[in-house]
Design a protein that fits this description.
The complex is a heterodimer of chains A (638) and B (450).
Chain A lengths: L2 H32 L3 H11 E6 L6 E2 L5 E13 L1 H5 L11 H18 L3 H10 L12 E7 L1 H23 L3 H9 L4 E10 L7 H4 L10 H5 L1 H5 L3 E7 L5 E4 L13 E3 L3 H17 L4 E7 L6 E7 L18 H4 L2 E2 L5 H10 L8 E3 L4 E3 L5 E3 L6 E3 H7 L2 H22 L26 H8 L5 E2 L1 H12 L3 E3 L4 E5 L5 E3 H5 L4 E3 L3 H17 L13 E10 L6 E14 L6 E8 L9 H19 L7 H4 L6 H10 L2
Parallel strand pairs in A: 2-8
Antiparallel strand pairs in A: 1-6, 2-3, 3-4, 3-5, 6-7, 8-18, 9-10, 9-23, 11-16, 12-15, 13-14, 17-20, 18-19, 21-22, 22-23
Helix pairs in contact in A: 4-5, 4-7, 6-7, 11-20, 13-15, 13-19, 14-19, 15-16
Chain B lengths: L28 E3 L6 E3 L8 H24 L9 H6 L2 H17 L15 H17 L3 E4 L2 E9 L2 E5 L1 H19 L7 H20 L3 H18 L3 H20 L2 H9 L12 H13 L24 H34 L3 H25 L17 H25 L10 H4 L2 H15 L1
Antiparallel strand pairs in B: 1-2, 3-4, 4-5
Helix pairs in contact in B: 1-3, 1-11, 1-13, 3-13, 4-5, 4-6, 5-6, 5-7, 5-12, 5-13, 6-7, 7-8, 7-12, 10-11, 11-12, 11-13, 12-13
The chains are: A alpha+beta (638), B mainly alpha (450).
């Protein structure tokens, strides 16, 4: 074959082969571009995308009268990068050698001024933390946490000053010096976060609880965390290989939903009054702890819920953890005589007794049908049902209880909501302790008829007591009044959660009768120390021996003093429960003397604050203005 | 034509650049009956092979210019004057020079390259210069970029011009083998006097390149072997070389750690995603990232530091990511057109030098493109080889464009021979020795005819 023909055919062969090759490669390109697997996409995203969180702002909590209780403030947290500052391997810092040392000195001087530290000791401190114990280079170290904006502004000013210095040096063509100033603060930075503050300090500390910067830990803060915390947003941005942020991805961009503001039913003034009076009473009687609850009997709003000792959520660590809980809902206790009105009400409703029926009270010593000895404080012969309540006769109540029988007494206890949670939103709520019906014995019958053997929380007590004031309705206590929704609209809690449950359990007749009887408790019975000079109040004392822990029987000299009251009698506006735990028995232990005055003052002051007109004259109150006689009476009995 | 259709109204009396040289009267608009509008009947444009090649070359250079700018783009570089920066840049200057070189060589009668005798031929001088420069690169004068010492840096004041001698060696070797075939036509079948000297020269060139650039050396060796067969060498002479080449390849690949790693990791790049497997993984991710439709011009993410050598060796991955399958298809189609045109030109030319030089140029470009695309699609192990006319590189652009210009020159000369405007080449050296006289004619003919 002539070379020219051979050249012709060879070139044809090779070039057509390369054409085929190119077409095949195009096919390969097509295959690669159309077969994108999920793992490819995952690899790409993990390579390019950075997911950053946009922190939602935790919402504020207000009282019902719009006083700020809890809010979030921005704080600045200063950190250092010791690895970059000292750069032991010469890889991280923009500077090296003598200029690295000079820049470090500039940094130490500036930061030391901010932190009130000596520059050399600051550097020594940083150097001592240059490595983790396992020998790894430390790249992050907190310098100051929770600093306010003024601190940050001072830092910014110093940084600006250093940049000006750098510019001045570079104008003077001192580029090394300029670099030292420019990079001096490279190893120091700020992270912003929020801190929860409680401007009212001890105000309703146990109710509100506390939160860290992420979530609520106790109280309402914990319970309404989902509302208050909101939802963090996120932004996915694309970074280049040098980790520089480039642009924000449209995918996955979500603005943060800030939390919803919450208004509680607490009234700042009434809460203040309750806390002050409870504090006074508990201090006076050297009590271990105490609880006061003020409620509106018509809609169930909890207007005040005070605990002693108080908790300041701003530095909750200073209070021992057993006082972090809100004892008004978490701690059930045997309330003693304060339970009697509920039993009586049920007996009256079921027509087991009438108010004027008389029982013989055996002058203070009585053995019930099982042979158990029941004693009264003082001794009476025949007492009407009203006077049994007024004088708080256990013997009379035992007889009434036996007349009711186990079933009816059990119904009485459960119908008033004891043994069940009240359904208010407060966290850690206890249902109380009520034995199931089949465990009730005759002994239980005797105990329960004057308030032992059944443990209730102060909130349950207040709620049940509301029933007399509002004409027989068992209502649900409310703690949240309103919420600001995401759209900025203010919605009441009943609009959000539905209207609160209420159940008619007593006829109005019984309520009126019992309120009348309980007014006499304050006038001439066990609650005389609690009489109010301004309003006609009604109430009931309760003094209970503390049960021994872990065994049967009771402490002989450890008491719970309870007082429940409502007022004014003609048209009750407020209900108040004060329970004082373990008062010093040498100073006093009766509900009427320990808890009564506090309860009465809380009610009086709160009613005055609510501008309720005082009750007028002796037309409605036979004891009006007869304080001297009252004092005499007070000396006579309990 | 139905009355209710809208027609595109071409402007009157525009002589399209491609049809301007035609002898026919310029097309003129007419009122055509039954149509409401003024329509122009466009004459079909016939493109010759060299014109097609010119367009292909310009297209590839244009794509290269755009994609190199896209690859070099950084967010911080964005400026209001980007349009000016686009055209006043090194790449734009290189493109301009490349187009100039192509046009100059197009107007040049390629047969002058053969010369009166082989030692005095321009091609020989070119090759010697290339070899000297290659040797110079291996000394401390060479500049290394990413560990490969392939460039010569000429400093002129504060500016520096880099030059890649292996490119020059590549093209001059093709021309030299062709010229050798012309001058030593009688001895080429002789092992000692014809075959061995040629093999030695090719071998020296390849070994000089091999040290720093295995891909280019292999390409040159392959094309040279085919050129030698075309020149008339006996195939078994070449076959003798095969064991030697294999041993050389073994040492060049297996005894250089990074090449061995690349070879071993090629099928399973995920075994070493941060080392030898990094380049193939990132290249594949670019294809996935772009998908079928691409991310859009300038929207690539992989070029932002992830894809290595995004403006040179892996520019095809960048095209795939930003322009999708259509971009790839356009680029590959341009290379296909170039190859087919080259093949047509090789078939049409009548002298051996034209055939060999034409084939060498075409094969070099299309095989290099195929190799680059194969590397980018991880069909073969990673090699540092550029995509001709697209990958950033001034020397490469200019010389490759000049090579295409040579192809175009071959076609133009062939056409002129066919129309008897130039003395035909018979494919014999003694005939070609008379060329200077013919060339005198040639220049006249060029002015008048072309």
């Amino acid at each position: 074959m002539a070379p020219i023909q051979r050249a012709q055919s060879l070139s044809t062969l090779v070039l057509l082969a390369s054409v085929v090759l190119l077409v095949a490669l195009l096919g390969r390109v097509f295959w690669l571009q159309t077969h994108v697997t999920r793992s490819d996409i995952r690899n790409l995203r993990s390579q390019h995308d950075v997911r950053a969180r946009l922190m939602a702002r935790r919402a504020s909590i207000y009282t019902g009268d719009s006083t700020l209780i809890a809010g979030s403030v921005r704080v600045y947290n200063m950190f250092a990068d010791p690895g970059l500052i000292f750069d032991p391997h010469g890889k991280l810092n923009a500077l090296s050698g003598p200029s690295l040392i000079a820049a470090r000195r500039i940094m130490a001087k500036a930061v030391g001024k901010l932190l009130h530290m000596d520059p050399s000791s600051l550097l020594a401190w940083l150097r001592s933390r240059l490595y983790y114990p396992n020998g790894r280079l430390r790249r992050f170290l907190w310098l100051k946490r929770g600093a306010n904006h003024a601190f940050y502004a001072r830092f910014e000013k110093i940084r600006h000053h250093l940049l000006l210095q750098a510019r001045r040096q570079s104008r003077a063509r001192q580029f090394v010096r300029a670099g030292e100033y420019f990079h001096a603060l490279d190893g120091v930075g700020f992270l912003r976060s929020t801190r929860r503050v409680y401007p009212l300090g001890h105000f309703a500390g146990q109710v509100i609880g506390f939160a860290n910067s992420h979530r609520g830990l106790e109280g309402i803060e914990e319970q309404l965390n989902a509302l208050l915390a909101g939802r963090n947003g996120q932004v996915i941005y694309v970074k280049d290989a040098a980790e520089r942020a480039l642009w924000i991805n449209r995918r996955g961009y979500r603005l943060p939903d800030n939390g919803m503001k919450v208004w509680l039913t607490l009234n700042s003034t009434i809460q203040g009054i309750a806390q002050m009076q409870l504090d006074k009473a508990c201090r006076k009687f050297q009590a271990r702890s105490g609880v006061a609850v003020v409620m509106n009997p018509y809609n169930g709003d909890i207007l005040a819920m005070a605990n002693y000792p108080t908790l300041n959520p701003n530095d909750y660590q200073k209070t021992p953890p057993q006082f972090w809980r809100n004892r008004a809902v978490t701690d059930p206790y045997e309330c003693g005589s304060a339970f009697k009105p509920f039993n009586l009400a049920w007996a009256l409703k079921k027509h087991v007794i009438t108010l004027s029926e008389k029982f013989y009270c055996y002058h203070g010593r009585y053995r019930d049908p099982t042979g158990r000895l029941i004693k009264d404080v003082g001794g009476w012969g025949f007492l009407s049902v009203e006077n049994i309540l007024v004088h708080s006769s256990n013997i009379g109540m035992t007889q009434i209880g036996w007349k009711m029988g186990i079933r009816r007494l059990y119904d009485a206890v459960t119908t008033f909501g004891f043994g069940r949670m009240t359904g208010c939103l407060l966290p850690g709520e206890s249902p109380g302790i009520v034995r199931p019906l089949h465990q009730w014995t005759k002994g239980t019958l005797t105990s329960a008829s004057f308030g032992y053997g059944v443990a209730v929380t102060p909130l349950q007590l207040a709620r049940a007591f509301c029933t007399f004031a509002n004409g027989g309705w068992l209502i649900t206590p409310q703690i949240v009044k309103a919420v600001e929704t995401r759209t900025g609209k203010l919605e009441t809690w009943s609009q959000i959660a539905g209207p609160p449950r209420a159940r008619k359990i007593l006829p109005r007749r019984v309520c009126t009768e019992l309120i009348g009887a309980m007014e006499q408790v304050m006038v001439r019975g066990t609650g005389q120390y609690a009489i109010s000079p301004v309003y006609r109040l009604y109430g009931k004392t309760g003094t209970a021996n503390l049960a021994l822990a872990g065994q049967d029987g009771y402490h002989s000299h450890q008491y719970n003093a309870t007082f429940i009251a409502g007022g004014p009698t003609p048209a009750p506006r407020l209900i108040c429960v004060v329970a004082v735990h373990k008062p010093n028995p040498h100073l006093g232990h009766y509900g009427g003397t320990v808890a009564g005055p506090a309860c009465s003052r809380i009610l009086t002051d709160s009613l005055e604050y609510l501008q309720v007109p005082p009750d007028q004259g002796p037309a409605t109150d036979p004891w009006w203005g007869k304080e001297s006689l009252l004092k005499k009476l007070k000396g006579l009995s309990h | 034509m139905p009355r209710n259709t809208y027609h595109i109204h071409w402007p009157n009396r525009i002589n399209w650049p491609l049809s301007a040289r035609s002898n026919a009267a310029p097309s003129s608009g007419q009122w055509s009956p039954g149509s409401r509008g003024f329509s122009v009947a466009l004459r079909p444009v016939t493109l010759t092979l060299d014109q097609i090649l010119c367009l292909v070359c310009l297209s590839l250079l244009g794509i290269g210019l755009v994609m190199v700018h896209s690859a070099n783009a950084r967010i911080s570089d964005f400026s209001r004057h980007w349009f000016i920066h686009f055209f006043i840049s090194g790449a734009a200057l290189h493109m301009l020079l490349a187009v100039l070189a192509m046009c100059l060589v197009w107007r040049f009668d390629y047969r002058r390259l053969i010369g009166r005798s082989l030692p005095l031929s321009a091609v020989t001088f070119l090759l010697i210069a290339a070899l000297l420069l290659l040797a110079l690169v291996l000394t401390h004068l060479g500049t290394s970029i990413n560990g490969a010492r392939r460039w010569l840096l000429l400093r002129i004041g504060s500016h520096a011009i880099s030059f890649e001698p292996s490119e020059l060696a590549k093209w001059s070797l093709v021309l030299f083998i062709s010229a050798y075939a012309m001058h030593r036509e009688d001895k080429i079948r002789d092992f000692l006097r014809g075959f061995l000297p040629l093999t030695a020269i090719i071998g020296i060139t390849c070994v000089l390149i091999l040290k720093e650039d295995f891909g280019t050396a292999a390409l040159i060796a392959g094309v040279s072997a085919i050129l030698m067969l075309m020149a008339g060498c006996r195939w078994w002479h070449l076959a003798i070389l095969v064991p030697g080449v294999l041993v050389l390849g073994y040492f060049a690949v297996w005894h250089i750690p990074y090449r061995r790693e690349r070879l071993l990791i090629f099928l399973h790049p995920h075994l070493d995603p941060r080392g030898a497997g990094y380049n193939p993984i990132q290249s594949l991710l670019s294809f996935s990232s772009g998908g079928f439709w691409g991310r859009g011009l300038g929207n690539g993410i992989q070029k932002l530091g992830y894809l290595p050598e995004a403006n040179t060796d892996f520019i095809f991955s960048l095209i795939a990511e930003e322009l999708g399958f259509f971009g790839c298809m356009v680029v590959v189609s341009l290379y296909l057109v170039l190859t087919i045109c080259g093949w047509r030109i090789v078939c049409r030319t009548r002298d051996l030098f034209g055939k060999m030089a034409g084939f060498g140029c075409t094969a070099m470009i299309s095989l290099q493109a195929a190799m680059n695309i194969a590397v980018a699609t991880v069909s073969v192990p990673t090699k540092g080889i550029a995509l001709p006319l697209i990958s950033s590189g001034g020397t490469s652009w200019i010389l490759t464009a000049a090579a295409i210009g040579l192809l175009m020159s071959i076609e133009r000369t062939t056409r002129m021979e066919m129309t008897n405007r130039l003395p035909a080449a018979t494919g014999q050296a003694d005939r070609l020795l008379k060329l200077p006289a013919a060339a005198a004619n040639d220049s006249v003919a060029m002015r008048t005819v072309a």
